[in-house]
Amino acid sequence: MLTGKQKRFLRSEAHHLNPVFQVGKGGVNDNMIKTIGEAIETRELMKISILQNCDMDKTEVAQELSEGVGAEIVQIIGNTIVLYKESKENKQLILPR
After folding, report:
1. What's the pTM?
2. Residue 96 in domain
3. What are phi and psi of 8, to 5 degrees?
4. Could you report the per-residue pLDDT of 2-30, keeping only the tens digit for each?
5. What is the DSSP string of 28-95?
6. How far is it, in rounded angstroms, from Cα 12 to Cα 57?
7. Is 83 within 8 Å of 46 (Cβ atoms)?
8. 29 is in which domain, residue-wise?
9. Burial of 3 by CB count in 10 Å (0-12 exposed, 13-18 middle, 19+ buried)?
10. Which pLDDT does position 94 carry in this prediction?
């Protein structure tokens, strides 16, 4: 689990990022989880936007994605989800304690 201080740090780091993936009408599927899992291993921190035509609730989408890729939900703001997962090989972010 991330502490409040770590979440604040990650939110500030994610502020300038653009959404990398979009969740649309089809919702979350295995292929999307696999692709996001590979991408988050490289980036550690990413934004995912939820399109207007998505049938699922944004908290459901965030929950499914975070469980699917083993990432932490940093923030859900508007229709954007911010996910963080510590990278095994490409560690870039050093979290505050």
Report:
1. 0.92
2. no
3. -60, -45
4. 999 999 999 999 999 999 999 999 899 99
5. --HHHHHHHHHHHHHHSEEEEEE-TT--S-HHHHHHHHHHHHT-EEEEEETTEEEEE---SS------
6. 25
7. yes
8. 4-84
9. exposed
10. 84
Q: Is 76 exposed, middle or buried, given 0-12, 13-18 or 19+ CB atoms closer than 10 A? A: middle
Work out how many domains the chain is built from and give that number.
Answer: 1
Could you report the per-residue pLDDT of 24-61, keeping only the tens digit for each? Answer: 998 999 999 999 999 999 999 999 999 999 999 999 99
Give the chain's length: 97
Residue with tokens 């699917």: 68
Residue 33, in any domain of the structure: yes
Residue 67 lies in a domain: yes
